[in-house]
Design a protein that fits this description.
The protein is an alpha/beta fold and 341 residues long. 46% of the residues lie in helices and 13% in strands. Strands 1, 2, 3, 4, 5, 6, 7 and 8 form an eight-stranded mixed sheet that branches. Helix 2 runs antiparallel to helix 3 and helix 3 runs antiparallel to helix 7 (125-133).
Length: 341
């Protein structure tokens, strides 16, 4: 494979990771791109592992097939999940689970009981899928794109980036170990939670190891959400979204400051596939909805958004950036009073 080398940074977000699946599918159809490294967190880590496995095994077509198989198996798990839409939600065309009794029970009980009480056998349905689909020897070989999967060290509160040649099923699951759903994953004596708290996704290993490259950020956790949350449930959901974006915003702000101080000469060229407007149509509870029809809808939405991105910005990839992080902070900076000298 040869062409314009690109890096991918993939956010987490439960079933909203199917948006990223669609974006990747469209990028894989572009023969001039060579995906040489991927940073992923949570659902982004799952997508990254399947993508890397497929590329290492037999190229873009196999990666496309492996991603499709992974999400089909996730949908299959949903057939046995109590988190399903109510008849009223189906009638209204909503993908939300806000009125589902099992979801409401889980939402309430997770404030009192931990996964150590509610999931005493430490069952994680994704483990079987990863065991069946991944060849760890191949994933850790030079044939695979470089992977950087972020998990949060519970003891230190710091991010840990897992990469080749040390990728295991546990390191991938650790990146997606949401503490209200799963026990912490113990690796080398330390417990790890979902990486979204400290890097969703982490950009610094890509910046460090691939200076001057083109990085495409794929977001599945909205920076902006219309309206003011008023119920306790909606407030908690929005707080989680803000928390899971905080580390990414901090890295983007640092990148902006470096550009302002040293210029953009050898800086990484940033690009972004933005899905905020799509995600604003979906309640946060829909992240636990894994119905096949919903995952297919998300995939198609992500594919269409990536197609638009490539039409508008694709020709500039490899030459100039199409996303300036300064645009994210312009409004906040106007409210900072000038510091007297």
């Amino acid at each position: 494979m040869s062409g314009t080398k690109i890096l991918l940074a993939l956010q987490g977000g439960g079933s909203h990771g199917a948006l990223t699946w669609g974006v990747i599918d469209r990028l894989l159809e572009t023969p001039r791109f060579e995906i040489c490294a991927v940073s992923g967190t949570s659902a982004g880590a799952m997508n990254a592992a399947m993508l890397a496995q497929g590329l290492a095994e037999d190229g873009a077509e196999h990666a496309t097939a492996l991603l499709r198989q992974y999400w089909a198996e996730v949908a299959q798990l949903g057939l046995f999940s109590p988190f399903r839409r109510t008849p009223r939600a189906r009638f209204l065309g909503s993908w939300a689970l806000d009125q589902n009794p099992a979801y409401l029970w889980y939402d309430m009980m997770s404030r009192f009981w931990s996964p150590y009480q509610m999931n005493p056998l430490d069952h994680n349905p994704l483990r079987r899928i990863l065991d069946d689909r991944l060849d760890l020897d191949l994933l850790n070989s030079d044939a695979a794109p470089r992977l950087y999967l972020t998990a949060t060290n519970v003891r230190t509160g710091q991010p840990r980036i897992f990469t080749q040649p040390d990728l295991t099923i546990d390191t991938i699951l650790a990146s997606a170990a949401l503490p209200t759903l799963f026990r912490a994953v113990e690796i080398e004596g330390d417990p790890y939670w979902d990486g979204g708290y400290t890097g969703n996704p982490a950009l610094f290993p890509l910046v460090r190891d691939f200076p001057g490259a083109d990085l495409i950020l794929v977001q599945t956790n909205p920076f902006e959400r219309n309206g003011t949350p008023r119920t306790a449930h909606d407030i908690a959901n929005r707080m989680n979204e803000i928390t899971f974006n905080a580390a990414l915003l901090k890295e983007l702000r640092a990148a902006q400051h470096l550009r302002e101080k040293f210029g953009t000469g050898s800086a990484m060229r940033l690009h972004r596939v933005l899905c905020d407007d799509i995600l604003n149509d979906f309640a946060p509870s829909s992240k636990l909805n894994v119905e096949a029809a919903y995952l297919s809808h998300l995939h198609d939405s992500g594919y269409a958004r990536a197609d638009r991105f490539l039409t508008e910005d694709g020709p500039r990839i490899g030459h100039e950036e199409t996303f300036d992080p300064a645009t994210l902070f312009a409004a906040s900076q106007t409210h900072i009073a000038e510091v007297p000298q």
